[in-house]
Structure to design on (346 residues):
């Protein structure tokens, strides 16, 4: 029996990427993961019990020209699949172009340039972890009559991205994904790969291992963590949007290159829509030790916010994926349960 091919995963130390690496190793793939430092590489390797099928390479900054060259020069001849997951996802900056837009766009171009240079005929599939943010702008997310499908594009301009950090992050994902499709169009006579993008909504669900649970979690899970650590009577932010569980996102990254129906497509990874009020309701209902000790907002009103926001139609992607996605209660429950176990409050 022939062994499974080697998959390159950028940003392997991140929240989603660790789940992706876990799925890949469990399915028998060999993995080469990039991290920013030796320290992070050692942490990642340790999480997988120093599995011989996992190698790491150091890419300190994806925004640097030629950032991935050394990795593809060394391993390009064996890499069949590239999963480009790394991209800045944080809001605590005022330098949107430097910290969000340029690393997202240049990182995407950079990894594709390295494929072109060192593995144009070896790499068969490239999956770019894009986002629902590339499909829809924050403004349109708040439009009650908007129906969002994978055909849509966030219409924020480069200049408009300077409005606030959330708008800037969303635009960084739009411009990065655009750059990937453009690269393939301009280089299709040179490279062999098919391009697929996965476009998840807000990703929730447990960290791959509990040693990643600190005071502050990754940007999306921090929305849940902040309610777990909120004070009774404090406000629940009027946030709503599409959601998906991280374990389903990881599975979808594999199907994205394993199933031919996905080639050339954008996979809109959305189970449904959520509001933070619904998350607070689940937390208060499911965890007696938190009930009344954390923010409650206005219980039962979460649906109303959804009626005032955009709707999402991920039916085409769901049909391609062909597996049942975890619902809001399960993803929120598992996120909170892990936090409480780590804090000795479960
Ligand atoms: P995360 O934990 O912050 O992961 C991001 C990864 O990218 C980290 O490994 C980070 O390394 C790396 N990275 C960022 N900027 C870099 C740079 N300039 N040079 C080198 N490495 C860099 O966040 P995540 O939620 O897993 O996000 C992973 C991907 O999914 C991103 O592309 C994000 O846009 C996308 N996404 C996330 C969500 C969500 O709700 N979580 C939804 C849709 C799409 P360090 O940690 O070492 O900085």
């Amino acid at each position: 029996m022939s062994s499974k091919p080697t998959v390159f995963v950028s940003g392997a130390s991140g929240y989603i990427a660790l789940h992706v690496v876990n799925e890949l190793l469990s399915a028998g793939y060999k993995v080469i993961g990039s991290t920013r430092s030796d320290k992070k590489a050692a942490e990642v390797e340790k999480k997988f019990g120093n599995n011989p099928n996992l190698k790491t390479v150091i890419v300190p900054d994806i925004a640097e020209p030629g950032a991935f060259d050394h990795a593809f020069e060394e391993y390009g001849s064996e890499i069949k699949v590239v999963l480009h997951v790394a991209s800045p996802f944080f809001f605590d900056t005022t330098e949107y172009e430097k910290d969000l837009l340029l690393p997202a766009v240049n990182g995407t171009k950079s990894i594709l340039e390295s494929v072109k240079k060192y593995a144009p005929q070896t790499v068969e599939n490239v999956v770019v972890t894009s986002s629902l943010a590339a499909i829809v702008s924050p403004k349109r997310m708040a439009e009650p009559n908007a129906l969002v499908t994978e055909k849509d594009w966030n219409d924020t301009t480069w200049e408009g991205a300077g409005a606030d950090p959330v708008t800037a992050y969303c635009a960084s994902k739009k411009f990065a994904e655009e750059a990937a499709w453009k690269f393939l169009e301009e280089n299709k006579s040179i490279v062999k790969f098919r391009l697929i993008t996965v476009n998840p909504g807000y990703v929730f669900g447990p960290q791959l291992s509990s040693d990643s649970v600190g005071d502050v979690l990754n940007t999306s899970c921090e929305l849940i963590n902040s309610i777990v650590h909120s004070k009774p009577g404090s406000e629940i932010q009027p946030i709503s949007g599409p959601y998906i569980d991280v374990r389903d996102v990881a599975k979808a990254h594999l199907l994205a290159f394993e199933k031919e129906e996905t080639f050339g497509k954008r996979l809109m990874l959305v189970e449904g829509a959520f509001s933070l009020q619904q998350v607070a309701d689940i937390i208060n209902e499911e965890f007696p030790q938190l009930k009344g000790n954390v923010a409650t907002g206005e219980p039962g009103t979460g649906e109303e916010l959804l009626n005032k926001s955009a709707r999402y139609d991920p039916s085409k992607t769901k049909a391609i994926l062909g597996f049942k996605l975890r619902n809001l209660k399960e993803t929120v429950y598992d996120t909170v349960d892990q936090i409480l176990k780590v804090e000795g409050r479960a």
